[in-house]
Amino acid sequence: MTVRFGLKAAGCGVALLAAACSAETLDGRAFGLVPDTEADMVPAVRRALAACTNAQNRLVFAPGRYDFYPDGTGEVTIAFHVLDKRNLTLDGGGAEFVFHGLMMPVRVERSEAVTLRGFSVDWDRPFITQGTLVGLSDTCVEVAIDKAQYPYEIENGRCWFTAPDWDRRRGVEGYNNLYDRDTREIVYRLRDNPLGIDFNGRAEEVRPGVVRFFGAPRVRPPLGTFVALNHGRYIVKGIDIVGSRDVAVREVTLYHVLSGGVVGARTENLTVDGLKIIANAKKGRVFSGVADGIHIIHCKGEVVVNNVEMTGHGDDFLNVHGRNCAVTKRLDDRTVRVVRAECTEPGDEVWLIRRADVQRREVRRVASVKRVPITHPLGHCETKTHNGIHYAWGLSTDKAGEWEVAFTEPLPADFGELDFYENKTWNASLRMTNCRVGKSHRARGVLVTTPEKVVIADNVFRTAGTAILIEGDTDHWYESGANTDVLIRDNVFEDCLTSGSESGTRWEWGEAVITVTPSHEPASVDAEPYHRNIRIERNAFRTFDVPLVRARSVRGFTFSSNVVERTRRYAPFAWQRAAFSFEGCREVVLRGNRYDDAYEGRDIWVKTMRPDDLKVEDGRSFDIRQK
Predict the structure, then answer these.
(1) What tens digit of pLDDT does each residue of 481-496 get?
(2) Taking the domains of the chain in order of start, what are their residue ranges?
(3) CATH class for domain 14-125+234-315?
(4) Contact predicate 66/59, CB 8 Å
């Protein structure tokens, strides 16, 4: 049982409180923020933040451990709610912030010039259970689980996972993954739920700390392989930054968070420098967080990501995007009903986009946004025809409902159901440098879709899936938009795609080291591409497999002055057996690259392109094949 002691403020008398409040630096101890007490620090944090004015305050913590508990309402408790603040630095001084149950560590909201620095975040009982594979047969797997760290109970033939501070018992929800017993990386050629076992099905405890889960395993990894079982998918964000300006996260370590690590929305200028989202090695863990490492949606200004490292995280390293708001019904000449409009607000300008060509066209200003009940069941998917073209119309992610959006000016007569709008006001540039993107976290490396300038330079990618994915999604997540200026330079791509695509199906983790696959597939050689101006220059590709690039619907694609070397740490398996695959691209140039003789990629696949759309002035002669 967890014992919560009363608040202690030893040595924090009236004199200390007065000194703390009269200076720009506020000592957390003056407000009851005393380490190593096991007391709930949420009330003390609220007192301290209330004392912070807008005059260059710096709230500092003494080193040590601070515990934070839910408020008991069953709703998410925010520990540090930085609301309507300016000129504030929250300086942890190396403090360890430990959370219990359903909590959001930090939310920065409607604030300006805020810096978070110098602390770590963890949970004593994380929302992931780790075990070790100790038995395997045709009908079951046996997993050893440290019951002290990851408590569970068997009831009516099912394994339930528990914690003293959880709001309820939990099953296995979302992802589960396997980690190599020696490298602690995602196991080669395996992806989500690789064993194919229903961990919420029949189970029994065969001896203390060993649970037998029944079912026929799809694969037979070696005993000693680590198993990570998630107890939710998108539970609660870690550091949530919304409606703010000039926010920085510096030298922060996230050992565990319940969803995205750092999430920014409608924020102008965001810097993430020195962030670590890593597995807590002192606790023997192979996992860290639950969802994307850094997730940026509808921000503007400049997003800077520098010197960031992630291990054991539950989804992509970095995702920067807007939103394609999909029209489900045109109500009148100024109003539409849409899905995925959670980042639309009155006053925003938007581009109107027709599904047939997905080009940004007319600009309209939003007059009003109203939430309405959803009219489509979750998981709804159908095929619709528009202008003679058949579309898959999936609304499986519309858990947030629908919105009625009205504009200040009339809409074009041909704009309606199946079309989109994209926010023009809120788009950020990205500069990502000096980061280390490893294969011990699931899925891909960087996802980026923004019309603003993107620079990805001087990083090391060693990913389980594709290293860089540029999409533009119009049929599932609706993540926009078309890129116009992307520079990928001076990076190292080493043995990426160890869990990449071997069959070409959607939910595998990428077809090439760099993948550009917007949903839009050009219908003819005359169709205008979706993306523009992507340059891949002076990088080192050290690869065990063949596919370097898969690109669809790009005008102005350059791959130049790169070095390609063959490695032999893994056996090749990717379904794409061409070095480059281009579909519906224009003005493609391969120039001045150097290829190791042992590298086996000697084909270029092309589709929906004219011969003069591709220019090869390269260090290798390729066979160009129509696909």
Answers:
(1) 899 999 999 999 999 9
(2) 14-125+234-315, 128-230, 326-422, 461-626
(3) mainly beta
(4) no
